[in-house]
């Protein structure tokens, strides 16, 4: 029964995807006499937590009930009061928790408050599923660096465009819709200047059924080559834009870019390029907890080389175009020896109509 009710709590938590960043996704279920009497989830950043929403939605007195919650109840005052204290005050008899909170401000303190009030606590129920759901939060709250997802779309023979640069469209419509859901899920979307010059994208979220959130558009542009009429410099009130550049950019042009509502981050030079590690730290300070990297081949390789990528999602279409000059998803100077190849783990393969989708996590060196 614990698994059944925790599965429901996880389903509720997913409803907050895209709206809670940089806070975690949390769901809560209150059960009394083998019946659900209250449900809630963290709906938006700064709003009531899942436990409080479950209490507010309860259909009867919660005294003596069991609460199922996907993340350890908070013990500190942030945007809202501590949920651990609310659980004690409401007379909950038992609390079942999927995973402990990795936030150093909590880190077991919420469980301690509840246990010290003679309330039974069980932890670790569907812990793996809860951690996967909150992989963005776990990375960000423990490192203050964004969780970075590298997304690629390629033909079966490994090309991201034809030999003349045509790339519309490689993946099918359903795969492209899923990418917009990914954009809605993250705080930032990053591309290199090459993508802006070649495609002039808007980099916004276009979803019909839900009110999709536009991530902050992050353009990596070492020399400040971005055109002042680029689409990513338009409507900065609706979709924020950050230009990541270096001292090699013209100061006068950067001021013009700022007039259009974009922010500028100037990083040190690293191999005469934007320092991506510095950039990740700067973005983390701006509460950007996650990034969907939709860069071109050059930026993709730099990101992997600098070890900022956490997860890879690759769409493979059943098409072949050939061409020795047709670009591949990962460019740059490349790796010389196979023994030094970047490795992935925990791979998943699924199909989206006739496309393949491969997901995996970059193996980090110990």
Walkthrough of the structure:
It is a single chain. The protein has 366 residues and is of the alpha/beta class. 27% of the residues lie in helices and 24% in strands. The strands form 3 sheets. A 9-stranded mixed beta sheet has the order 10-9-8-7-13-6-14-16-15. It has a 5-stranded mixed beta sheet with strand order 2-1-3-4-5, sandwiched between helices. The protein has a two-stranded antiparallel sheet with strand order 11-12.
Q: Which features would summarize this protein structure in a list?
A:
366 residues, alpha/beta, 11 helices, nine-stranded mixed β-sheet, five-stranded mixed β-sheet, 27% helix
Head-to-tail CA distance between termini: 38 Å
- Cross-sheet strand order for the largest sheet: 10-9-8-7-13-6-14-16-15
Helix content: 25-40%
Strand pairing plus helix content: what structural class? alpha/beta
Strand content: 15-25%
Oligomer: single chain
- Total helical elements: 11
Largest sheet: 9 strands, mixed
* Overall radius of gyration: 23 Å
What is the N-to-C succession of helices and strands?
HEEHEHEHEHHEHEHEEHEEEHEHEEE
Contiguous runs where pLDDT drops below 50 for at least 5 residues: none
Q: What is the topological layout?
A:
Layout: H1 2-14, E1 27-32, E2 35-41, H2 50-56, E3 66-71, H3 83-89, E4 94-99, H4 109-115, E5 120-123, H5 127-133, H6 135-143, E6 147-155, H7 173-185, E7 188-192, H8 193-199, E8 216-220, E9 241-245, H9 251-259, E10 263-266, E11 269-270, E12 273-274, H10 276-285, E13 290-293, H11 297-305, E14 311-317, E15 344-352, E16 355-362
């Amino acid at each position: 029964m614990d698994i059944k009710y925790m599965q429901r709590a996880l389903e509720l938590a997913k409803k907050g995807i895209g709206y809670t960043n940089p806070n975690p996704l949390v769901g809560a279920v209150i059960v009394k006499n083998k019946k659900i009497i209250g449900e809630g989830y963290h709906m938006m950043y700064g709003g009531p937590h899942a436990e409080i929403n479950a209490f507010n939605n309860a259909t009867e007195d919660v005294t003596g009930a069991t609460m199922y919650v996907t993340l350890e109840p908070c013990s500190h005052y942030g945007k809202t009061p501590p949920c651990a204290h609310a659980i004690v005050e409401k007379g909950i008899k038992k609390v079942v928790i999927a995973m402990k909170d990795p936030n150093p401000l909590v880190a077991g303190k919420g469980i301690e408050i509840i246990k010290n009030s003679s309330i039974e606590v069980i932890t670790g129920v569907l812990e793996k599923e809860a951690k996967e759901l909150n992989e963005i939060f776990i990375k960000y709250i423990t490192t203050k660096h964004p969780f970075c997802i590298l997304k690629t779309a390629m033909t079966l023979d490994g090309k991201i465009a034809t030999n003349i640069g045509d790339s519309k469209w490689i993946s099918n419509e359903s795969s492209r819709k899923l990418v917009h859901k990914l954009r809605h899920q993250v705080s930032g979307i990053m591309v290199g200047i090459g993508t802006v010059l070649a495609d002039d994208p808007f980099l916004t979220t276009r979803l019909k059924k839900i009110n999709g959130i536009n991530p902050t558009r992050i353009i990596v542009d070492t020399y400040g080559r971005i055109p002042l009429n680029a689409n990513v410099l338009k409507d900065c009130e609706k979709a924020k834009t950050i230009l990541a550049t270096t001292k090699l950019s013209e100061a006068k042009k950067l001021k013009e870019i700022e007039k259009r509502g974009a922010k500028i981050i100037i990083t040190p030079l690293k191999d005469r390029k934007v320092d991506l590690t510095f950039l990740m730290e700067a973005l983390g300070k701006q509460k950007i907890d996650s990034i969907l990297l939709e860069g071109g081949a050059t930026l993709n390789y730099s990101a992997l080389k600098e070890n900022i990528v956490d997860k890879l999602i690759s769409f493979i279409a059943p098409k072949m175009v050939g061409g020795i000059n047709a670009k591949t998803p990962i460019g740059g100077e490349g790796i010389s020896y196979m023994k030094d190849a970047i490795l992935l783990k925990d791979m998943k393969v699924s199909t989206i109509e006739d496309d393949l989708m491969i997901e995996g996590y970059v193996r980090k060196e110990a």
